Amino acid sequence: MGEGTHTESLSYASSGYSNRMGWGERPALLIIDVCRAYWEPSSPLNISQNPAANASPDSMRRLLEAARKAGLPTAHTKVSYSDPEMRDAGLFWLKAKPLSVWQKGDTRGLDAGLEGLQPRDGEILVQKKYPSAFFGTTLATDLNLRNVDTLVICGADGESSFMLFRNVADLAQVVGEACGDRTPEIHNANLFDLNAKPGMSNLENLLRMTAVQAESMRGLGGYAGGMFMAASKVMGEETASVQQGAAGGESSRK
Q1: How many CB atoms within 10 Å of residue 159?
Q2: What gap in Å lies between CA 83 and CA 69, rounded to an integer?
Q3: Domain 24-244 homologous superfamily, CATH
Q4: pLDDT tens digit sequence for 23-65
Q5: Contact predicate 116/178, CB 8 Å
Q6: Which residues does residue 128 pair with via DSSP β-bridges, in sequence order?
Q7: Which of 110, 126, 128, 154 is geometrically suited to a Cys-Cys bond with 37, CB 3.0 to 4.6 A?
Q8: What is the 3-state secondary structure (H, E, C) of the chain?
Q9: Closest CA to 173 of 231, 92, 130
């Protein structure tokens, strides 16, 4: 979904939304809850019936490869419940019985990772129980210790509102093609709202920004420039749009 494509875009813009805040200098990649549960037809969380969601793991792999090549910190989240009665899922369990795919001892194996998207030694692995990757976890501390100031977010959720809104904050960039959702309409609506509030940038604008910053970022090991230049080559400038929670035409760091 590109900028200006929604019927309410002009209304939001006239109200003062959809501005840009810039982005930081030390990004990290956050991959949320990627596991077989979302791409297994027999799973209650299956999203593979949506063609865009079915294709999203390929974009995730490309982002992950680019991040590793650029030396970016990478964090993975994994849902896990150990209580036999699912009490550690809280009230969420009363509404969402498919959470049982992550219950300890479940024999379906739907919590297994996808090929090419498993964490490597040295990468951050966050165990969580709720939609947010930050609530009740050490992720904020892990990122602060690495001086991360921008998050590139991708992953899966049965409804993208949980993944996107519970994890997007100040300087966060959501890569639409690398996010899987059951329902295209809900997914696109959430991306539109992210554009209006945290923000959004297409890849062409993002690449112009990284080109300007490339020289200044050389000392950082090509943190952002290397990642997004690599991502552009594998995803395609015309088809890959980056939904950016704080993207803009210029860096927020001067």
Answers
A1: 16
A2: 39
A3: Isochorismatase-like (3.40.50.850)
A4: 678 888 899 999 999 999 999 999 999 888 898 899 889 889 8
A5: no
A6: 79
A7: 110
A8: CCCCCCCCHHHHHHCCCCCCCCCCCCEEEEEECCCHHHCCCCCCCCCCCCHHHHHHHHHHHHHHHHHHHHCCCEEEEEECECCCCCHHHCCHHHHCHHHHHHECCCCCCCCCCCCCCCCCCCCEEEEECCCCCCCCCCHHHHHHHCCCCEEEEEEECCCHHHHHHHHCCCCEEEEEEEEECCCHHHHHHHHHHHHHCCCCEEHHHHHHHHHHHCCCCHHHCCHHHHHHHHHHHHHCCCCCEEEECCCCCCCCCC
A9: 231
Give the integer Cα–Cα distance in Å for 250 and 234: 24
Q: Which amino acid is at 240?
A: A
- Residue that has been written with the tokens 């690449």 in this structure: 207
Which region, left, alpha or beta, applies to residue 123 given φ > 0 means left and ψ of -120 to 50 means alpha? beta
The size of the chain, in residues, is 254
**Phi, then psi, of 32 in degrees rounded to 5:** -105, 120
Which pair of structure tokens corresponds to residue 95? 């509404």
Residues 6+ apart with CB under 8 A from 250: 22, 209, 212
Residue 193 confidence (pLDDT): 66
Assess contact for 24 and 251: CB atoms under 8 A. yes
Name the percent of the chain lying above pLDDT 90: 34
* Tokens 């991959």 found at: 31
User: What would the two tokens of residue 9 be?
Assistant: 């875009």
